[in-house]
Amino acid sequence: MLDHPIARIENLRVEFETRGGNVVGVEDVSFSINPGETVAVVGESGSGKSVSSLSLMRLVEFGGGKITGGHLLFDRVKGGELDIASADQDLMRTIRGNEIGMIFQEPMTALNPVFTVGRQLTEGLRVHKGMSKDQAYARALELLKQVRIPEPERRLKQFPHELSGGMRQRVVIAMALACEPRLLIADEPTTALDVTIQAEILALIDRLKRETGTAVMFITHDMAVVAQMADRVVVMYRGNKVEEGTVQEIFDSPKHDYTKALLAAVPKLGEMTGKAYPEPMRLLGVDADEVKPIVGSEDDLLVVKHLTTRFPVKGGFFRRTVANVHAVEDVSFTIKKGQTLSLVGESGCGKSSAGRSLLRLVEPKSGHIYLDGKDIMALDQGGLRKARLDMQMVFQDPFASLNPQMQLADQVAEPMWNYGTKKGADLQKAVERLFDRVELPRSFLRRFPHELSGGQRQRVAIARALALNPKLIVADEAVSALDVSVQAQVLNLMMELQADLGLSFLFISHDMAVVERVSHHVGVMYLGRIVEMGSRRAVFENPQHPYTQALMKAVPVADPARRKGEHELNFKPIPSPIHPVDYEPAMSEYRKVADDHIVLTTDSGY
């Protein structure tokens, strides 16, 4: 069975036409994928891994690319081997979705916002499989159950915006699997998902592959995911394949320097055991002497007391408030100068709402926020504008937070220009210094956001946040969508800035290994409350709350010998945070485990 591959890529070359001439996206790449096998293609943004997958679907042409060399041989169910590189688009329409399924990285852009989930799931089945409306509906329901979506009947009637990120990604997976394709291409399917949902989705893809014999091409930059999923690994760098081997060979004895650098850049859970303070990662090419722990000071910068944020749910003819979403419920914490507090938890636990409430980007219902002794809640609009000089935010999606029509130099200069802190030549110099600071070439000053990779865009966002010399930066999932090596560089950059400038960070993340690396203190959030909080060592080395323990268990380990089975993952579904208007929850009460470690005793619902 395994002697004949389902897909073979031979000497693929893809070029893109740009104003500055032709750019080579993939130079010369060859590899094959066998039935029932998972081949992980790893590399950084711009290495050509997504371009290879889009070429296999012949979608690369819709993005301005052109296959200028090589063969893409696909073994069809009927009709034998076909060279996709020279197939016409009509034939590709019958193959796409039917024989080759694809899970895209960003579920919100892969789903159509104006159609219900049910309509989108049944469409492919009716087109490719000729099913009746009822048959397609029954199959769609079965698919949603397969990807473990709760209340599938209700979900079929909902629109994509009514689902969380993890749910949307599961719908995209269900769509890709609907017609039982021979080859499934998964392009970063878990990058922006929570640890728990990621663990479930990886187990799901693995189970479906075993049950159906589908071949999987898994594109990722997360080496822990590779260790969990792959049979074979193809490492790509700048449009070329630099190494290929079984998952054991790649992890145990990588040959190419780039593969070694990739593996060195993976933060591993447990690496910081026994260390009191965070320290930058030892990346290849970085002097070991330069890696110093970041102590910070013992003075309070930010004190938050009983912060509560709720969002109204409108309904009825007069759009009255019929219920509230309890996003942040009675949260208190302190951040010291030059230190990092991390908030971790799954999507919808309220960590981003807590971060936004601090800057009053969303208005809290009650509570106190003191920044350097100043009561943020008591300020009027003018005072708040002034206070924001001291606190800035780095958002999760740099593409959405940057203006697509402005050059990068202007975007980084804008805060200084708005606040009048720098003018003329000083402003220009300050922007150049900020670009140097976040290690971006000055030639990028005149570029636009779409001309950069994700990691480069995030650096621009960090440069912009630093423009006003803030004391506190709220980093909301700032590295979750970045490549491992870029993520490691950005984390090291943030820690270097912290050491040099005495910055404090509120670091919001769902990546436990990253949190362990950067934090002085950690707060674990669940359904709007902090369920456990303490120094990083206390929380990671002695987790007390069952939810914290479940989170730790879900983290994939970058070691193929320690793969997690589906039976190890037993997550409870998260209850709804929506409550009637007159509902008043209990106050948060905590039990002291140690001097620097507390656990919630109020019922958190977990």
UniProtKB/TrEMBL annotation:
This is Glutathione import ATP-binding protein GsiA. Keywords: ATP-binding, Cell inner membrane, Cell membrane, Hydrolase, Membrane, Nucleotide-binding, Repeat, Translocase, Transport. It comes from Pseudooceanicola pacificus. GO terms for cellular component: plasma membrane. It is an enzyme of class 7 (translocase). One of its GO terms (biological process) is peptide transport. It is found in: Cell inner membrane. Belongs to the ABC transporter superfamily. Glutathione importer (TC 3.A.1.5.11) family. The complex is composed of two ATP-binding proteins (GsiA), two transmembrane proteins (GsiC and GsiD) and a solute-binding protein (GsiB). It is a peripheral membrane protein. One of its GO terms (molecular function) is ATP binding. Residues 7-263, 313-552 form the ABC transporter domain. Its EC number is 7.4.2.10. Part of the ABC transporter complex GsiABCD involved in glutathione import. Responsible for energy coupling to the transport system. It comes from the Bacteria. It catalyses: glutathione(out) + ATP + H2O = glutathione(in) + ADP + phosphate + H(+). SMART domains: AAA. It holds the Pfam family ABC_tran.
